[in-house]
Amino acid sequence: MDIEQFRKAGYQAIDRICDYYYALQQSKFSVLPDVEPGYLRPLLPSNAPETGEDFSQIAEDYQKLIVPGYTHWQHPSFLAYFPAGFSFEGILGDLYASSVSNPGFNWLASPSCTELESIVLDWASQMLGLSSSFLNSSGVGGGCFQNTASEAALVAIIAARSAYKAAYPDTKLEDMRIYTTTQTHSLGLKAGVILGLSVRALEVTREDNFSLRGDTLRSALEEDKKKELHPFILIATIGTTSSGAVDNIAEIRTVTADFPEIKIHVDAAWAGMALVCPEFRELCFLEDINAIADSFSTNFHKWGLTNFDACPLWVRDRKYLTDALDITPPFLRTAQGDAGIVVDYRNWHLGLGRRYRSLKLWFVLRGYGVEGFQKHIRKAVDLNKFFVELVTSSNMLSLCAPPSLALSVIRINPKPSASNQATLPEDALNDLNKLFYGKLSARKDIILTQTVLNGQFCIRLAIGSAFTQEVHIRDAFELITHEAKLALEAWEQPQIGA
Amino acid sequence: MDIEQFRKAGYQAIDRICDYYYALQQSKFSVLPDVEPGYLRPLLPSNAPETGEDFSQIAEDYQKLIVPGYTHWQHPSFLAYFPAGFSFEGILGDLYASSVSNPGFNWLASPSCTELESIVLDWASQMLGLSSSFLNSSGVGGGCFQNTASEAALVAIIAARSAYKAAYPDTKLEDMRIYTTTQTHSLGLKAGVILGLSVRALEVTREDNFSLRGDTLRSALEEDKKKELHPFILIATIGTTSSGAVDNIAEIRTVTADFPEIKIHVDAAWAGMALVCPEFRELCFLEDINAIADSFSTNFHKWGLTNFDACPLWVRDRKYLTDALDITPPFLRTAQGDAGIVVDYRNWHLGLGRRYRSLKLWFVLRGYGVEGFQKHIRKAVDLNKFFVELVTSSNMLSLCAPPSLALSVIRINPKPSASNQATLPEDALNDLNKLFYGKLSARKDIILTQTVLNGQFCIRLAIGSAFTQEVHIRDAFELITHEAKLALEAWEQPQIGA
């Protein structure tokens, strides 16, 4: 493909993306695709072609074969998992970045990639209200993109393990422990299996809204210390995946003051973006995070308007990362790196080559401004309030946990007056709700996610697509109510027959 | 930004990318930027703007402030590190993929993302001549994108550690050993520090062209076994970074037949792409790789025409990965995953969310065809032959290792007849070549990388940009010769004075 052919194909791509978003805004297609597992293989040849093909044919096949197999994360009725960040500015940032195909691992490997990342993550840090200790401009702390929140947590754990081993060199890996809660994202357990380290998931209760409390942490630390085990890091969460729970960082702060060897990583993958709004900062324990977190991570590619991927990790001391991860063979040495006058970000993360992500975040921050981010967050929170009102007024549905920002967790729990039954026992409720979720997940016009909260099967609804409006939430509620009725009828049917 | 504003900004981006490549083809700017460390911060505000800005202003600032800070990896005179993959098809693939911002970690999270990856990596595997055991369609083995070759190796090591611990559960992590050679990419050492495992770098010699030999491996294995240490994986390299050395997989095959507990990961990050050409397969030990490799990785984002990033990892048995990495919390369960009828790629790598990379590789494979890839590889190898001829005819320069595919490693080593001196001692030669490299790296019109080969300081020249032609190699040679002369003069000056 020559430059002029690229121009033509590029214009076509831009036009088709415009068509796609016009159609999506108007809900002209369902959020879930109508395909079965294995749909694609029979539609494609079993080998790459011997000779190159014309791009117009490739572009046609893309429209015809690939687009119909998408789950549309930007669809107004996408309410599963957490939202995937999106903005037109983000696409443009990715486009310009991709066009220079630059794995800028060293400063010299592309000065503007490194320098823009350093500056833009300072902008982002300040927008979220993080302490100035986390600024790249501090020369001590700093921020750097990781691939995902899982990898950000993994890097934080590796840094903490390294710091702990430096302080206590005789510690056996087998005796070292990562602390999470039972509600921490699977990234905690996965980091454990990746590193071959044990993970202790601290218990949290429904009464505490699934938030880690200081007493639980203190007891566990004392217990493990007695057993000569070595807890060395706590992954605290601001906004868990299952219910949006927020660990009590104020109490954690008090406890860890007595255990200064424990590092704290704050995983705010989803909810961290709410820190752009001053009114959510106390709820998210910002002051305590700023006081004690050794590292903090949030995903601009979730609720932050930025196309996947864009996950910064900030640390209070960059040597925390580089002491653990700096490997510099001769072929990666540069005059600037040797002189110590530049940052070589490859020493802040797992891999070597790195995607050029700062450009899109720069575009998005400038395109929206702080106010645009605040508006985006507040809109989703307001839509969730609206949804919660609808649930509260329902005879069939109830909340399984307090709503958290733009996330609600619900289940069918028929009020006795609304049915002929008394309150159902928990086991039966779980079965009923699995039946209910089965019905919901058989539909193509909505997507929600299941979860389990301390034994209670429930259904999550997470708001945040840039295109979701009140009408979509109302439609979602009506559809959920409709399926709940059918589930209850199906449930009661065999009961009568029994 | 609304859809029509995006269309306008998108057309502009496409046009500017065209402008950029016209200018680059004509070498209208230098490969290295003329900026000093810290150039960008004073040019940008210290905070994100409060209100959103017009995109035309942002796009202007991009041209004015960011582009002048790029190291141009696609420049015809980019001869450092290894090439960064590029094609217009790759940009278009990234553009379409970015436009749907989809972190397709589960099949359901986007069926076409998962299915296209599975099919396209089969195409790629067949194009490279890998055994059918590595095909996704085998239902047993398979391929999956990782972030980089470093992470591919890390994942392979984690899988091997997990398999070893399953077979020998009493093994202490402290006693487990990763095997590499002294020439293995720093990814080996880095994996060791990440996992807290020791790494034994086996010696290789200049006489063996820096290739790992069977006897060295066997001695090390026997020695470590005697010490009750547990080597559990060997990272073998096809095309090392420093000199393009190829470990002797045939001999490794013979040795590891006696040590079946040792897993083999083949890192062919750069040179693996040469396997598209049948004439390079023997040199790269393809038959032996197909016989013994548990995992194999190569970067389409290096020599493979695909924009960063595109790094597949193939395994002979997918359970090798999933046994080590599958963590499935309730909120990630799906009906299709539970039924075992789909692949959920999140269990094949470190993170959870994953970039949608198959689209660009599909575009590139179709746009070029197998023939297009072969042509691209052969052109770079031929250009390197041309460079080697020039070096061989030089009185000042010599090769430090046999040329490997499209990589040459050189240094000044004046032939006695060309100077008044006898052959210089090694220490002096190293100093001279550091001076030489200092001169080369002060220039903006070429970029090369330094390395050290068993104590010998030398300079790498790696060919592979899509735009590099014979004229650029001739120019590079002349420029190198010019700087070599100046270095020799500067070197001889104080000698005379002394």
TrEMBL record, chains A, B:
SUPFAM superfamilies reported in the protein's UniProt record: PLP-dependent transferases
Alphabetic keyword roster: Decarboxylase, Lyase, Pyridoxal phosphate, Transferase
Record bears the keyword Lyase: yes
Coiled coil: none
N6-(pyridoxal phosphate)lysine: residues bearing it: K302
Record-linked InterPro entries: Aromatic_deC (IPR010977), PyrdxlP-dep_de-COase (IPR002129), PyrdxlP-dep_Trfase (IPR015424), PyrdxlP-dep_Trfase_major (IPR015421), PyrdxlP-dep_Trfase_small (IPR015422), Pyridoxal-P_BS (IPR021115)
Family to which this protein belongs: Belongs to the group II decarboxylase family.
Name of the featured protein: Pyridoxal phosphate-dependent transferase
